[in-house]
Amino acid sequence: MLDALNDFLSGKLLIVLIVGLGSYFTIRSRFVQFRHFGHMFGVFKESLRGQAGQLSSFQALMLSLAGRVGAGNIAGVGIAVTLGGPGAVFWMWVTALVGMSSSFFECTLAQVYKRADGDGLYRGGPAYYIQHGLKLKSMAVVFSILLLVTYGFAFNGLQSYTVTHSLQNAFGFAPEHTGIALAVLLAIVFLGGIKRIAAVSDLLVPVKTLAYIGVTLYVIGTQIEHVPAMLETIFKSAFGLDPAFGGLLGSAIIMGVKRGVFANEAGLGSAPNVAAVAAVKHPGAQGVVQAFSVFLDTFVICTCTALLILLSGFYTPGFEGDGIVLTQNSLAAVVGDWGRLFVSVALSLFVFTCILYNYYLGENSLQFLSRNRAVLMTYRALVLALVVWGSTQNLSTVFAFADITMTCLAFVNLIALALLFKIGLRVMRDYDEQRRAGVNQPVFDSSKFKDLDLDRAAWPANPQAETATDNAAAQAQPQR
């Protein structure tokens, strides 16, 4: 019953809403993800610079990539190719293209309505823009509870099971021992709060991402002469024009869109929670950075996995098996048996950072509901206990339930995005106008948005004067 309900909600209804609204946002914003595509790299470079005591935009990006770049980039792509054929990859690309606009607006709104937490940091996300933008506190509470249950608890147990059993298969480690070791490492990170979580993500995410991309690019490089033909197969299969995959047209669309949605998370309401923590000069800048993360997740990492599978010679139409096994065997077919071990280690790093990401989403939801320190410590203890327990339990039923609750919170977020879209457009146009005027780093002046319920501590009025003062002080410093 759970599978049937989940298949209808996440496999049909949610896909239509996400792709439909993403397309609408794309058209109404005059294709914001294309207009700012080149600008994304400049903003990404600028995001490396942070303010003292604040989390930088780059750290927020790494934290969001900790969640976006996970098991879905290995197992999810394998499942999509297995059930939908090569054409599924094309529909993953399409989903990412429209998803980039959804991510831009949800993360921009998260920045607009973020709140200073009193410790020099910020908190925000869909619950905050629902409460302060739509004035619907009850709707915000529902979203927070759904996010806490889904990411804070259910998904963490599932991730623990995934990593412990992957290491058991690769190295023979006992799941219960791995679960305890994992809980200890997580506890060390959790106790440092968001700054330590961001610092660990800042270290691990580039390492795991670059290592995985490097190995897959090596495989692609050894088969480079076959890449054009394989890309042609992907495009033909996407429209049922390849005889070998003609019967998979419907599956290619469904699996490509579904796996694409859950790989990049654009529109689901999870990434805005971490996008809001960054100290930026304009909300639009963080929207651009987060749109770039969708591009990196799907067009780079998922594409690398797909080409690894399709070029290895291991995959054949009608392949039966799970996505992890397919990816492991595909890599091993080219580089040898160490490829299976590499995929297991990569998956372990992906899952570890995903748990950090999931934990923070739950903590952010909890902080929205209660600021009681004892409640936060109890949450941390429950998450760690669940990690240890989940390491030895197959939580497939819990996962099916979590899929449904995640779909429900996505519905809440999409409704809020649609209702707040005009405000998102106003902020985007303010960003665009400053860019057209030659301002490399647009600044958000809250005095232009007096009708919005903004936190003036996060967004002061007339920040240009402060910026000019800072620039003058910097120029007055002696040059070395």
TrEMBL record:
Main location, first listed in the record: membrane
Presence of the UniProt keyword GTP-binding in the record: no
Region called Disordered, residue ranges: 461-480
InterPro entries: Na/Ala_symport (IPR001463)
Entry keyword set: Cell inner membrane, Cell membrane, Membrane, Symport, Transmembrane, Transmembrane helix, Transport
Regions crossing the membrane: 12-31, 65-84, 134-154, 174-194, 291-315, 341-362, 374-392, 398-421
Annotated localization: Cell inner membrane; Cell membrane
GO terms, molecular function: amino acid:sodium symporter activity
Biased composition annotated in UniProt, kind: Low complexity: 463-480
Name this polypeptide is given: Alanine:cation symporter family protein
Organism: Pseudomonas vanderleydeniana
